Structures
1.
Amino acid sequence: MTGFRAHISPPGLLFAVLGLAALLAPFMTLAANRIVAGDGIVAWNIAGPAITAPGLAAVVIGLAMGLVAGWTRLRLLGAVLGLTGLLWLLSRGAPVLLSQAGEYARVSPSAGFWCLLVVLMLLMADALAALKPGPFMRGLLFVSALVALALILGSGLLSDLSVLQEFSSRRDAFFTELLRHLGLAFGSVAAAAVIGFPLGILCHRNAQLRGAILPVLSFLQTIPSLAMFGLMIPILGWFGSTVPWAQAIGIAGIGFAPAFLALLLYSLLPVVGNTVAGLASTPSATLEAARGMGMTPAQRLLRVELPLGLPIILTGLRIVLVQNIGLAVIAGLIGGGGFGTFVFQGLNQTATDLILLGALPTVVLALSAAIVMDILVELTRQTPEEAA
């Protein structure tokens, strides 16, 4: 009995229990139209046994494969098998449910599906963490996952789901808001880097300036996000109405400009603070050696301090990028665009799938940004021998 327990993975056991419990919850929801709540349907009732049995078997076997400790690749394969089972149930079950409903009926994933998706993704993440893939392998796995997701969405397997029907009716608007969301998140990070890196270098060199700047940036970080967006409205509204050329370039009380400025202010503390911390992480012995070689302060900064502090500096950018991708959703409240437009439209219409049309891409963007930045941070931490 003791030997048996020793071969059971504790995380795998937890995931199996949670996954089996999630199977008892409604797997899909069938509603008369896009607004009403609808009725939850458990996985084994969404279609006949010929459809549900293979999907349920894949999920259960996948969870069982995650129980085995030590066989990490088997656990990873179990997570993939379980995800395949979820895809099978969604793609095969949705048409069956719609065929038995009215013309305006909508079918959506329900709580059981989302819980199982999270459990299987956690199982996959746990297996990958045990495998400890290098940055290049992680990058390959990440690209493979994105390609697989694109192929699934492009194949039409899930086109009967309500969230994809919302996408089909708003395709042009979706890509417009995607570009606006990317502009808000990545543009504000780029602007913060242009301002924050030089300011961080100056703060590193000057203790008095550091003591004055960092508390102000820390104070800005404490302002709630919704309040920060609200404060930008009267400030930029006054600026746009007072300065003749301001409105010509799009500066006004509502829209893109106040959202961009709010995100920029939120971004400055992590960028400046991590730049200071990164530069300060250079060992004093290394700096003394650089001075002994006759390097000027500028040469020490470019050749010694910045390369050694780059992982910490990039960590600050990672924090800012993931933060701003999420905060950009709030820009929809003040006309700034982005995926928040769909989220708040869905809230006003009590249309859950319209909310998901804005929320799900935001989650995918944030996870993708975090993975890519983690890979970059790890690459900068490697020595040339390790990178080879």
2.
Amino acid sequence: MLADGPQQGLYVSGSDGSMRALDPRTGAVRWSRAIDSSDAISGYMGGRPAAAGDGAVYTATSTGLQALDAATGEVRWQVPVPEWAELPAERTPIAVGGGAVFAVHGGALHAHDPATGEARWSKTSGAGDFLAADGDTVYVGGVGVRAFDARTGEQRWVQESIPGVKSTPVVHQGAVLLTYNIGTATTTWVCSLEAATGRVRWQRMQQGAGNCPLSAANRTVCFLSGGHLTGMDTETGEPRWTATVTLGLGRGESSMTAANGVAYVGTNDDRLFAFDLDTGSPRWQDAPEKLRSDTDYTYVSLAAAGPTVYRSSRTGLHALGALT
């Protein structure tokens, strides 16, 4: 799910194989387009990875990279990528920035013209599965982290001390924030790299496996593990607070996002928790969803735009907060 600003659009990729554009103020469907058959993404509760920018929505289908017009949903172009047939839902192999759309597949980073899909350049990226773009730089995380010039493909730096990136990098206030594991799922390292050079700024070991990618806002980076949400100072990595989140009642995935002074956590029973980003104090939580049984599986997706948070789950799409 992508929130492209309250006056732009809200784009949702569902497990039914369709991409939808919604009005972020009313929830009205602006357009809907099938991008994959349901069989192609069976088991991927959150739908296909997608990125929005330059007036288009780019999505990873089971056969390749596809560009949809953000206003109409019409297909602008598509590029075959056979390796994406079994793409895990948690991967983010596409990103938009620096005047291009980027895709990772076949051990390489590829840059495409956003208007035509024409390949501009391709560079070996190693075993990189996670992708983020910011300004004129694109970052690839996997076995090590690499930074490339978005326009030329020149590798700016590589940080090989990171053994295995486990989440999409977050670029925040001149830093690249990410998580990685070393041979065990009982601990996770949260790491900050200097965006310009790749130098390690700080690393902090956290107990447990991360439930979802990091999120950062207001000089705070948030890490969710089980029933614990930790807020750390983005400059030093020092823990600022820890909040307790009631574990979900069903099976499935939780999610977390931070924006506008609030950290939101969606649990696998469709509950949503809001915490003050400065102190970790609970602000509110909504009523628990009544599951049919303890075997129900729920995938909650969150996106924030200004004072509004959008929650997508098996019960539908909800907007909470101020719609400005």
